[in-house]
Amino acid sequence: MWRVFVNGEEAMAWIEDVDALRFKGELPELALIDVRLPGALQGPAIGARLRRSPRLKDIAIVITSAYLLSVEEEQAAIREADADAYVRKPLPRLNEFKLILEKTLAERRARLPLPEAQPAAGTPETALPRKVPVKPRRPARRPAAKPKPRSK
């Protein structure tokens, strides 16, 4: 599922729609955001807004830029966006870039708390089904062949 925005204002409007439950659809697990965007809102501000979103706060954020930023400027952008990774442009080759994104996503998932098992509404926790070991099924036996009559 991809969402592409022309500028920071479009991205911010979409985040607002998600938080207000006006957006019905699959939510992303990762945001790739350029540091400098057309319009007044810049990438780090979009990342910061994602982190404040109750519905989007846990997505992985990767920021990128083609501008030659100083180490201090890169670090400031990462801090403001609370980004998981920073990738300089030109972007690496596709397979390498894909590995970077997959690693970032896996690391973000590993930091998230595991969801707690919720008992069904109105059901005491003790009524939850137990895990019952399943015995492997034996292959069905073929019926024994009837002996052939002997010829005299």
Task: Provide a descriptive summary of the structure in words.
With 152 residues, this protein is α/β, with parallel strands linked by helices. Helix content is 34%, strand content 10%. It has four helices and three strands; from the N terminus they run αβαβαβα. Strands 1-2-3 form a three-stranded parallel sheet. α3 links the parallel β2 and β3. α1 runs parallel beside α2. The longest helix has 18 residues.
Summarize the structure.
By secondary structure, the chain is an alpha/beta fold. It has 4 helices and 3 strands. The protein has a 3-stranded parallel β-sheet with strand order 1-2-3.
Rg measurement, Å: 27 Å
E-strand count: 3
Q: Quaternary status of these chains?
A: single chain
**Structural class estimated from helices and strands:** alpha/beta
β-sheet strand percentage: 5-15%
Distance between the termini: 77 Å
Q: What profile does the largest beta sheet have?
A: 3 strands, parallel
Percent helix range: 25-40%
Shape summary: elongated
Poorly predicted parts: 118-140
Spell the H/E element sequence: HEHEHEH
The strand line-up of the biggest sheet is 1-2-3
What is the mean pLDDT?
Answer: 84
Quickly count the helices: 4
